[in-house]
Design brief:
By secondary structure, the protein is of the alpha/beta class. It contains 14 helices and 17 strands. Strand 7, helix 7 and strand 8 form a beta-alpha-beta unit. The N and C termini lie close together (5 Å). The structure holds adenosine monophosphate (AMP). Adenosine monophosphate binds next to strand 14. The site of adenosine monophosphate has 16 residues, from strand 14.
Length: 423
């Protein structure tokens, strides 16, 4: 049975907590953005304040070494111990091998904390074989997979043996069925729960997918239709308005016979784009594509630009940002919506000259929020855009999980969430 962090009695107990401390480090191993650590602090502090002891576990990067004892120091969590101590206000101990932390875990007293070394030093965390020869046969690959799956059972059991309860606060990895994100939960059938960050993310997902106030509008941008196909299809069952912007919009325009010059597009996705438009019509969903675009003669910030009809982009020119006319249409839709989900920028926002459209959408969302709409930004570069542009605290919720949020809005069940919720 699932517990709740507010009501669970942590006193004298050891809690093993999966967090997402996969923070960016510079070449001196200094943290360049500690958002992920700060977002987990309320959960960790709560457990400490309730008399619990913490065994904190996370991954960092993608270490590939087949031998966990020789784990690449580049991916060591030892680099962040001091900062985590500072954030928690207690000295955090460090176990340099997550499988050899028995004594350290046992010695923990209430209010103390221990951080385990990068779980992904062990292939068992992800359950995928490492060190396979490139020319491995199908049979060898199959055998290696079976072997790691087998040893994964011991790995999970060992991690679970350190603690009395399990808390998952790692939304960023909730879409992975890994040892520490999903499999470990079964060792704590009556002592498992979400942390506050997970809870907030799940609530945000529910607010848009299951309890949306209408009109509900999804703004889907970004580069490719192929990476957002499942999101688009799921949205057709939920929304009243679907705004399609950014690079992916040109595939829709070309599929309908428009001339898109050198704009980004995927020919092989054109049938899917037409299918989405057809389905939208059948379901009464209002699809709004760009009407005009800011086109550039090169994929560079200082390229020459002109605003052109979206269906008549000259050869040698490519669509780079949403035009004022498209943005005006979209603002009307956004301002008359009660729920808005935004995934993906509507232009090449990394280049300042082509960030205006994305900035305007961020402004529209902020205005809609101020007017009482529920606005969620999640799953892709739109999160980076709103953060960079200073709008993160002007919308209802900004998700911390790129891939996890994307899968959630595709309508998939996330293994990290299911493992806590199911009996
Ligand atoms: P995604 O990760 O799918 O949200 O895609 C984000 C990327 O889409 C960003 O790097 C943007 O620069 C890119 N993008 C948005 N609009 C365009 C466009 N018109 N042409 C090329 N790339 C674009």
């Amino acid at each position: 049975m699932q517990q709740h962090i507010d009501t669970y009695d942590f006193s004298g107990k050891k809690a093993i907590v999966r967090v997402d401390f996969n923070v960016p480090l510079n070449e001196n191993f200094e943290i360049t953005d500690d958002t992920r650590i700060r977002r987990a602090v309320p959960t960790l502090k709560k457990i400490l304040s309730k008399g619990g002891a913490l065994i904190i576990m996370s991954h960092l990067g993608r270490p590939k070494n087949a031998d966990p004892k020789k784990g690449d120091p580049k991916f060591s969590l030892k680099h962040i111990v001091d900062h985590v101590s500072e954030c928690l206000g207690v000295p955090v101990k460090f176990a340099s091998d997550c499988m050899e932390a028995d004594q350290a875990a046992k010695a923990l007293k209430p209010g103390e904390a221990l951080l385990l070394e990068n779980l992904r030093y062990y292939a068992e965390e992800e359950g995928k074989p490492r060190g396979l020869a490139e020319d491995a046969t199908e049979e060898e690959t199959k055998a290696a997979k079976a072997k790691v799956k087998e040893s994964q059972k011991e790995f999970v059991k060992h991690l679970a043996s350190y603690a009395d309860c399990y808390v998952n606060d790692a939304f960023g990895t909730a879409h992975r069925a890994h040892a520490s994100t999903a499999l470990i939960a079964k060792y704590f059938p009556n002592d498992k729960m979400f942390g506050y960050l997970m809870e907030a993310e799940i609530k945000a997902i529910n607010n848009v997918l299951n309890n949306a106030q209408h009109p509900f509008t999804a703004i889907i941008g970004g580069s490719k239709v192929s990476s957002k196909l499942a999101v688009l299809k799921n949205m057709l069952n939920k929304v009243d308005n679907l705004i399609i912007g950014g690079g992916m919009g040109y595939t829709f325009i070309k599929a309908q016979g428009g001339h898109i010059g050198n704009s980004l597009h995927e020919d092989e996705l054109m049938p899917d784009a037409l299918e989405i438009l057809k389905e939208a019509k059948e379901k009464g969903v209002n699809v709004s594509l760009s009407v005009a675009t800011v086109a550039a003669d090169r994929f560079e910030n200082d390229a020459d630009t002109k605003v052109v009809d979206i269906k008549e982009i000259p050869d040698g020119w490519e669509g780079m940002d949403a035009s004022p006319a498209s943005l005006e249409n979209w603002r009307k839709i956004i301002m008359s919506s009660k729920t808005i989900l935004w995934n993906g920028p509507v232009g090449v926002f990394e280049m300042p000259n082509f960030a205006k459209g994305t900035l305007q959408i961020a402004q529209d969302l902020a205005d809609a929020t101020a007017q009482g709409a529920y606005t969620l930004v999640g799953g892709g570069d739109s999160v980076a855009a709103v953060t960079k542009m200073g709008f993160a605290d002007k919308v209802s919720y900004v998700s911390t999980g790129g891939g996890a949020m994307l899968e959630a809005i595709e309508g998939k069940v996330l293994p990290g969430i299911a493992a806590i919720e199911e009996d």
